[in-house]
Amino acid sequence: MSLGRHRVALSVLIAAVMTAGSVLFAPTAGAAPQPWNGQYQMITYASQKAGTSPAAKQRETDFSATFTLATACAVTRCVATVVDGPRPGNPTVPWPTRYAWNGSEWTTNYDWLWDCFLGNGNQKQWARATSWAYFQPQPNGSLKGTWHTDIAEGACRGSVVMPVAAVPV
Description:
Layout: H1 3-24, E1 38-44, E2 63-73, E3 78-84, E4 98-101, E5 106-116, E6 125-137, E7 143-151, E8 158-168
Antiparallel strand pairs: 1-2, 1-8, 2-3, 3-4, 4-5, 5-6, 6-7, 7-8
C-alpha cells in the first residue's frame, strides 16, 4: 500500500472513531436539567379550562395546594414523586403522583374515574377517563404546563384541558 493510501485510510479511520465517540458520549436527550425536589405550590387554572366536554364549560375557580417532590434517577430515567401533600379528593386518582422526565418536561399519565357534576340535587356520574399532564421548567425555577383529560363516556364525554403551574415555596 502506498503512503497516500495509508494517509487516506488513517483519515477515514480517525473520522470514524471521532464520529463513534461523539455518538457514544453525547449527552442523552432524557437527562434532566435539574431534579424536581422540594416544596411547590401546584396550581390548576380551572377558570381557564377548555375542551369538548360539557364539564369544560362548567364554571370553576382555580385551585392549588402545596406538595413536596423528590426526584430519583437511574441510568436512563428520572422520576419525581410527590412525597407529601394532600391526597386527591377523588379516590380513583392514583397516589402518589409520579412525573417522568422526557428530555424537556416532567410528564404523568393515568386512568381514573371522572366525577361528572350533573347539577345541584343530582347524583354525580362516574365515567372512565385518561389524563396526562406536563410541567416544563422555566428560567425562574417555576414550571408551567397543561393538564388534559379525555372522558370516555357519559354526560361529560369529551376533553377537558387546563393550564397548570408549580411555583417553589
